[in-house]
Structures are given as structure tokens and as C-alpha cells.
Amino acid sequence: MEYLYAILPWVLIFGIFWFFLIRPQQKQKKEHQNMLDNLSIGDKIVTIGGIKGKIIKIKDSNVRVRVSSNVDIDFVKNAVSRVEEKSSSKNDEDTEETKKDKE
């Protein structure tokens, strides 16, 4: 019985850590992965470095982002922090380069 009273506080501490720290972090990671899987051409994004731009090409684990006219940067998908604005459709506002890449 004494062992039960000695272990019970540790079990409670672990339970509190699980519900307040571990579970929310796992949920956030799952939502971020879902966001990365649903990226599409034309989405306006922000990277973890704070660079804003529009996705013009998606290839495997890389994303090409247009940050200014004639300035494109390639990023790893995991570098995308958030999507600021989803494109209305995949073909909306395709650039000439994107059309060439599709052919």
C-alpha cells in the first residue's frame, strides 16, 4: 500500500504532462503535416524565415516560391510555416514558367 502512495504522484505528474504538453504538440505537428500535404500552386505562404511569396511549382519535397517579379526561391516543404491565402483553383493565375513546367 505504501508503494501505491509513492507511485501515485508520479503517475499524476506524467498524466498532467501528457494532457498539457505532449498531446497538444502532437496535434499541432499533425495539423502542420496536413497543411504541407495540401499545398497547391498559387497559394500565398510564409516560410519559417519570414519570406513571403506565392507557390509556382511543387516537386516532391521541394517548393518553388516567387517572392518578386523574376525572383524565385526553392525551399524544402518543411520550411513552409503557414499558408496566408489559398488559391481559388489550381489553374488560377498560372505563370508562364509553371505552364512550361507542366508540358
UniProtKB/TrEMBL annotation:
One of its GO terms (cellular component) is plasma membrane. Residues 82-103 are annotated as: Disordered. It is found in: Cell membrane. It is a single-pass membrane protein. The chain crosses the membrane at residues 6-22. Pfam families: YajC (PF02699). Signal peptide: none annotated. Keywords: Cell membrane, Membrane, Protein transport, Translocation, Transmembrane, Transmembrane helix, Transport. One of its GO terms (biological process) is protein transport. Belongs to the YajC family. This is Preprotein translocase subunit YajC.
